[in-house]
Amino acid sequence: MNMMQTISAPTPLIEISRLSKRYSRGETVVPIFDDLSLSIPCGRFVALMGPSGSGKTTLLNMLAGIDRPSGGMLSIDGERIDRYGEAALAGWRARTLGFIFQFYNLMPMLTAAQNVELPLLLQPMGASERRRRVETALDVVGLADRMKHRPRELSGGQQQRVAIARALVADPKLILADEPTGDLDRPSADRVLEILRLLSSELGKTIVMVTHDPVAARAADLTLHLEKGRFVDEAIAA
Amino acid sequence: MFSHVRQVGAVARIALLGLPSRARMSLAAIFGIALATLVLLGFLAMASGFRSTVAGAGSDQAAIILAEGSPSEFASAIDINRLAQLQNAPGIAHGPGGPLISPENFATISAVDDQGTEANLSLRGMATQGLAVRPLARLAAGRMFAPGSNELVVGASLAARYRDLKLGRSIRLAGMAWKVVGIFDAGGSAAESEVWADRTLVAQFFGSSGAVQSVRVRLANAGALLPLQRYLAAESASKLTARSEKDYFAVQARNMGKLILFIGWPLGIAMAIGALAGALNTMFTSVSARSEEIRTLRILGYRGLPVFLSTMAEAIVLVLIGCAAAISLSLAFLNGRSASTIGGNLSQVMFRFDLGVSDILQSVVVALVVAILGGALPAWRAARRPLAAAPGA
Amino acid sequence: MRMSTLVARNALRNPVRLVLMVACIAIAFLIFGVLSAVGAAFRMEDQPGAHERVMIVNRNGLQQTLPIAYLADIRQQPNVAAATPVRLAIAYWREPKDVLSAVMVDPAIYLTLSEDSAVVSAEDRARFVATRDGLLVGQALATRNGWKRGDLVTLQSLNDLRTDGTRSWSFRVAGIYRAAKPGGPELAVAGHYDYFNDALLTGRDRANWIMVQGRDVTANDAMARAIDASYANSAAATRTQSEAALGRAFLSQIGDVVLIIRLVVGAAFLVILCIVGNTLIFMVGERTREIGVLKTLGFSGGRVARIVVGEVALITLAGAAVGMSLALLIVTAVASATKDMLPGLAIGPTTLGIAALLAGGLVLLTGLLPVVKAARLDIVTALGRV
């Protein structure tokens, strides 16, 4: 599979149906959302907005397979990940998912290139192939000249771009981003959003980005608003 | 499978590369395990050293005759009237002056060492054949004592440590001056912690006349012990038993070594439990310091097992560093160092710390047990930590 | 809410870490407690009688003997109230394996001098003193061997011979003693020195030591010097010292082993100092933000320091208490097994006192850095760090 290859399929990449999530806090049960349905086609760049406690982070966690729904159906790229166990989920994430964190979450003792290489260690792939992919991914985010730098030698914006390279290096179909610009100044944030746009339009990646920032949301094809566990957008609210 | 190995490698590498940032806690764990290992090694080396020093005092070419039922030379009495019958006993080697038999008794004397501390030492009264009956002993300097004169022959270990017992010096014992006329060497064994003198004088001046405590004989050949034992058994009135010097000292060594290990192991294990608590503490701290890093890797698709194994690897590396430090320290400063303690005759026995391969292996095993116990729980916790925190938490 | 509540809540927020630190400290105190109990037993620290009784032994060691003629001379000393010879016999009853410790003494004087450790009824006492071949037997030994008053028992000596060529002495069980302290040693026997000595071939007319009760305890030292001086040039020079000092001297003969045991205790404390101290520094670091909040609320540096010290003290004292209790349990168990080899094995007030000092020192040493760190913490940096 070549990462430069554009993937487009007529079927939706993400399909959520009647999804519910409740947390139990001691005696009381706190519902986050109930009966949530949503479908996102391949190659779309979706911004997910909403106030604190609206459930957007929980939804993102479920899309990433790091939190489990209490009920309903969750299918990504045709795989019912709500039915997967721990190990299967880890394998699925390695194949299908790229994740971008608000605080970059790079390993401080590894170089930029080594950080980007991490997901590739999960694939059956030789060292030269891995090096080629790492170089390409860092090139895409414009950091080909920073391969040997460690995170602390990079600015916040540069670190986030390394994290994006890490998210795309294994050529995942879906990239999830949790407030990717939340900790960045405006010019760095713009640069990050520009790259995400590029990943969606040129490489056909499906991107779901949780954000508080309306400017960031404007970079997306579509913005969904979640409030008290419901989508308030006319088009989606079913 | 292949990617599994690579996953473990990658996660372990990240864990270990991060060690310097957790340096202080890691050092505390290393320090703890190092000291615990050092304590254990110290006792093991002491026991081994003591054992080999005592066991090394015995040869299978000599036999020791004791009163029946006596566990050692120090709790034995043989009527001197019975000695004559031993002259004709079978299996005993002959020298120029007749059969090589040495009736012997003990006294303790008080001497001052080079540091000025007074201690009690064993004085063995023996026949002039005393040297010839001992295959493992030889004169290193000077000569054997002359019968009937106040002369001493001193073991090399004592001569090296006691200022009154050097060749040519005199020491006051029982109100008389005794001259050191010879130094004997017994391969560094416990026998070197003795002072020898003429038995009749020892009996006369140290209040043990009328009986001897043991009889040492040189065996004629390898199979000579059995005829000697049969001969003694046939003389039921005498109630004497013979065993090879080698067996006798092996049993003494085992008993004494056991005593040291009886103290050493519980202490070593208590220290190891302390070190374990330290290691657990460090590893829990490490896991909590690495929690974000571990979460990131898991979200990237890494499985729980590599996370578990990497934490174990960190614990094992820390423990092995501590253990290696302890082993090198004890090899450098402990091994071969001489020490003294009280022996069977309530007198000083010199011995050397002797760190054997099996001692080192035992300490490594203890350290690895600490590593595995100290790593497993934190590692399990690290691998099982939920990836998504409950909102607001 | 009081300050102590804050301290307790703080300590309990990470129960695993709390347990580990307490365990660490407990182990060190356990090692300390057990080893010092052994040391104290040798030094006879908690046996007041041992400091008052005076022992005269051969300068050349406990294995050497003294001529019995010394006894008469010593009884002439002005400060000597009573003196008895003690001759040790290593003997067994039926099986050579079951060696028992037998002392041959002047019966009346020995009973008086041992009143603090052995209890004998007036009737038994009179019978033992009056019976020349009488044997005073510990209750536990009598029970084990099925001996009753009036029984004739034959003991075989391992290290002494009789003039008749044999090694057996028959005794008549004349009395039974009980240990003064419950659980004390009751496995020894005592006989008459004269009866034992008269039959001796080996080492006749000699005693292993002479036990003396002084009239005035404060004059004991002068008496000891006078006795030792009078025999300094004899074949058997003496060393006169209290029973406790004799135990100490014996311990020092074990020599390097004692040093090694001290090193072990030192090592154990060094380990916990390092581990606990580090963890506490780490804990303060972890709570930087909260300490900042407390200071913003108006807690002074001193007050914050007191909260941290309180927590350190809580952890240390809990560890010390657990460790010393475990040591107490172990020592009690071991003591009943070894009461005949090493009587007086117990954790006494001295050991407890030193443990308290150690705990205090530990609080100071481990608490110092974290407390300074917490008290000096600047509010802006504390809160600025998220």
Automatic annotation (TrEMBL), chain A:
A GO molecular-function annotation: transmembrane transporter activity
GO cellular component: membrane protein complex; plasma membrane
PROSITE patterns: ABC_TRANSPORTER_1 (PS00211), ABC_TRANSPORTER_2 (PS50893)
Keyword NAD in annotation: no
Residues covered by the ABC transporter domain: 14-238
Pfam family, one: ABC_tran
Keyword terms, alphabetized: ATP-binding, Cell inner membrane, Cell membrane, Membrane, Nucleotide-binding, Transport
SUPFAM superfamilies found in the cross-reference section: P-loop containing nucleoside triphosphate hydrolases
PANTHER family the record matches: ABC TRANSPORTER ATP-BINDING PROTEIN (PTHR24220:SF452), IMPORT ATP-BINDING PROTEIN (PTHR24220)
Family to which the UniProt record says this protein belongs: Belongs to the ABC transporter superfamily. Macrolide exporter (TC 3.A.1.122) family.
Protein name, entry field: Putative ABC transport system ATP-binding protein
Automatic annotation (TrEMBL), chain B:
Ranges for domain ABC3 transporter permease C-terminal: 269-386
Main location (coarse class): membrane
GO cellular component: plasma membrane
Transmembrane intervals: 259-284, 305-334, 360-380
Gene Ontology terms for molecular function: transmembrane transporter activity
Superkingdom: Bacteria
Keyword presence, ATP-binding: no
Keywords: Cell membrane, Membrane, Transmembrane, Transmembrane helix
Places the protein is found: Cell membrane
Domain MacB-like periplasmic core: 26-222
UniProt membrane topology term: Multi-pass membrane protein
Any Pfam family hit: MacB_PCD
PANTHER family hit by this protein: ABC TRANSPORTER PERMEASE, MEMBRANE COMPONENT OF TRANSPORTER-RELATED
Protein name (database record): Putative ABC transport system permease protein
Lineage: Bacteria, Pseudomonadati, Pseudomonadota, Alphaproteobacteria, Sphingomonadales
TrEMBL record, chain C:
Record's bilayer topology term: Multi-pass membrane protein
MacB-like periplasmic core domain residues: 21-229
Keywords of the record: Cell membrane, Membrane, Transmembrane, Transmembrane helix
Positions of the ABC3 transporter permease C-terminal domain: 264-378
Residue spans crossing the bilayer: 259-284, 304-331, 351-372
UniProt subcellular location: Cell membrane
One Pfam short name: MacB_PCD
GO cellular component, one term: plasma membrane
Lineage top rank: taxon: Bacteria
Protein name listed in UniProt: Putative ABC transport system permease protein
The species this protein was found in: Sphingomonas trueperi
Top-level taxonomy: Bacteria, Pseudomonadati, Pseudomonadota, Alphaproteobacteria, Sphingomonadales
